[in-house]
Each structure stands twice: as C-alpha cells, then as structure tokens.
TrEMBL record:
Gene3D superfamilies: Jelly Rolls. This is Cysteine dioxygenase. PANTHER family: CYSTEINE DIOXYGENASE, CYSTEINE DIOXYGENASE TYPE 1. It holds the Pfam family CDO_I.
C-alpha cells in the first residue's frame, strides 16, 4: 500500500479553489479534488482502519455480515465522503455509475472483481489487498467480492462456511458526496442501456 501524503482532516484545505459547478458546461469540474487526491484519502483511510482507529465503527460483536454488504462512513463533509465497505460472497453492485461524483478505492483485505464497460464490452480485473483504483465521471462498472482462488497468495482459504471467511474490505471516497447512481444493462446488440436512476447517498449502491 502506498504511503499517505494527505491526512483525512487536512486534505480539504490542501487544494486551491476551483470554479463553481455548472453541469450545463461539459468542461466544468464537479469538485476541487482530483482522482489522485481521492486515492490518497482512501489509502490513509485504509491505514487508519488497519491501525484500529475506526474500531468503534466496526460491527460490535466482531462478526462481519455474511448476507449483505456492510458499510460505515469514515469521513463526510461538503466535498467528500469516505466509506469502509465489507463485501459478501455472491453479491454484486450491478452495473452502475456514480452520476456526477468522482470515485476511488483501496482494497484492505481479500479481493474485488470489477467488470467495467469499455465502450464495447465488459472487461474484468481483480483488485487484491493493497491495490487501488479511481473512477472518473462516466465510469460504468459492477463490483463484487472475488473468489479466493482469483488472486495468488490470497489470505483467504475459502472454508466451507462463508461466514468464517476473513472479511473482504475496501475504503472508498466520492467527491462530491454521492447523491445519485444510474444502473445499466448490456443489450443483445452489444450496447449499454440505462435501466433506472436512483437518489442515494450510499456507497456502491444501497447496502
């Protein structure tokens, strides 16, 4: 995992002011933060989680949910939301975008499979512990917990009971904070079709 450059508390103050948001102008930036800034925030958030600084936000009984994804907000303000997400086997987010928000993530443990629409097809990649990714506006993807055998040297041994697996955890940042997400399907003609748009402030779809 890369070393952190910005702290979660001071990152907002480190950037010069940008132009006001005007969604009618294609070149207008939705946030003063850049993808590299979000990667730094998720990297530091991951380090803080591993260091136990957010233990008070973790499941009280120490047992990670095994039926549905779980999330806790680590930081929020007018410019950015930072979340910790626990991923459940077999549960995907569906193909979606983040509307007018930029995004980034750092994987803490386990591995994630991402299926990204590249304009003609879905391309898969696996992100293991320590890996990072950023998502510009217009990025359409589906994310789910990767099988243990997808990543060499995975710490997960895949016992029979999914509840006994080590958690697959990742830290995500969105700027500006999420307000909506659109969902998509790939048509029989090999094109992408939007199926619905929902208002939400939850990371990677409703938990």
């Amino acid at each position: 995992m890369r070393s952190s450059v910005l702290s979660l508390s001071s990152a907002r103050d480190a950037f010069s002011a940008g132009p006001p948001l005007d969604r009618a102008v294609a070149s207008a930036l939705p946030t003063r933060l850049r993808p590299a800034d979000l990667l730094r925030l998720t990297d530091e958030g991951a380090e803080d989680v591993l260091a136990g600084r957010y233990d008070h936000l973790l499941p009280a009984d120490g047992i990670w949910p095994s039926d549905e994804r779980w999330a806790a907000r680590l930081l929020t303000d007018d410019e950015v939301d930072v979340w910790l997400i626990s991923w459940t086997p077999g549960k995907s987010t569906e193909l979606h975008d983040h509307a007018g928000s930029l995004g980034a993530l750092t994987v803490l443990s386990g591995a994630l499979s991402e299926f990204r629409w590249n304009g003609t097809e879905l391309r898969r990649r696996v992100l293991g512990a320590g890996d990072q990714a950023s998502f510009p506006i217009g990025w359409v993807h589906d994310v789910m917990r990767a099988p243990a055998h997808s990543v060499a040297d995975s710490a997960i041994d895949a016992p029979l009971d999914p509840a006994l697996l080590e958690p697959t955890l990742s830290v995500h940042a969105y700027s500006p904070p999420l307000t909506a997400m659109s969902y998509y399907e790939v048509t029989g003609h090999g094109t992408l079709r939007r199926t619905r748009t929902v208002l939400t402030d939850q990371p990677e779809g409703d938990m």
